[in-house]
User: Fold this.
Amino acid sequence: MTQLRQELFFAVRWPFIARYFGQFCLVIAVLNLVTLAAALLEGQFLIAVAYALIVLGLIAGGWLLTRIKVKGRMQMNEAMVLVVLVFLAVPLVTALPLTVSGIAFADALFETISAATTTGLSTLGPVEQRPMTFAFARAWMQWYGGLGIVVFSLALIVRPGMSARRLSSPDLPDDLAGGTRAHARRVLLVYGLLTLGSFLFWVLLGGQPLSGLLYTLSAVSTGGFAPTAGSFADLPGLRLAWLVTVATLAGALPLALYHRAGRRGWREFTQNLEVRALLAAALVIILAFGTNLWLRGMDLSAVLRHAPLMALSAQTTSGFSSLDPGGLDAASKAILILAMATGGSVGSTAGGFKILRLLILFGLFYRCLKTLSVPPDAVVDQRLDKRKVEAKEIQDALMIILMFVGVVFFSWFMFLAYGYPALDALFEVVSATGTVGLSSGLTQAALPIPLKLTLCVDMLLGRLEFVAWLVFFYHRTWFGRKRGSS
Assistant:
């Protein structure tokens, strides 16, 4: 904490920001070559030209910026500023090819922000009416938005150190990326193997390869963009829907855990408190959601089909659906709202304020109650899975949860001011802030532009978990004393 405060005391240095942003531009250019190839293969030459111009512009701009010479290591606030700039730049740049296909810029930007933040909300209606390049571009962007951008960049360009660890994600545990290129490549390997394994199982189960690729890219990143408007409802049978759901659950677990399990054995999964808590939370949501559907008159076979898929979709923040959330009753929507807000694991691709922070909050409540039954001078430590929880961890967890609630409340008020139903509006803003993608039906082309922008801000804030944005808008980040380059 002391080091963080020391680093935030110094203003960012523009040469560092410019040089490393240039390197990000080169990475983004390479990633967009894939979409360019997809457009050429489908014969969408106008869209291909748009992507070609973007790639050339990114390469030219990136090359010029990387010519800037810097010495020394990057500060933590510089790394956070870079993350924010990348998540602003990627949607802006990739929105341009969508406008070529006749999509209004506001909707194109909404779509790319939703993709880059792995949310999955859309204002464009049935995806089947658009070129396959469009569906692929969304899924591909969700995949590299989930972890690809930062991991590629860490593996290629960032030096070891705390700032690199912070760059990989504001909430990653210390043993995930550690700031080293070797650790970054391990994370990318895990991410890639989860993606490849899910796709191969899809093909083995008889699924159509192209649909499987689109589902897989969105599933592992817990993104939720399906290649058809009906999502799971359009799949032939339950086997493929469950495969995608298992892939989303795999993406919602701490990615560091896979590497540790490979070295120490698969008991790492069963012994991990966060994994157990996530599965327990999902089971509670399944039972509550399913029981409510059954009490509302749904046939038991339909309950058994839909309840696990919908509950796990909300808990993993993937956003796939077998039912239209807009047609659910109030209690069912409330249950899904709770799951979407809680989300998945720290160090995963899932959104929400994370199950671990909820455990810390519950532990704080228990500690407060316990202090009432001990002598006033007794020291009562808060523990989590036999480990002492430090005051900084409690402070960080409470800050993230409170900021999540605050952003949701403000955005909800915006929707209420426009006269939208309270529960549906709450469902929508929690889905956006939790980067989930389930919709009560409010997110559509007719949604007023101020509310579309509100959801865009929610998605960006939720994806970076607020801290990077606080640093970005902190005045001392930009003005004040600068550290020497030595």
About this structure: Strands lie at 383-384, 387-388.
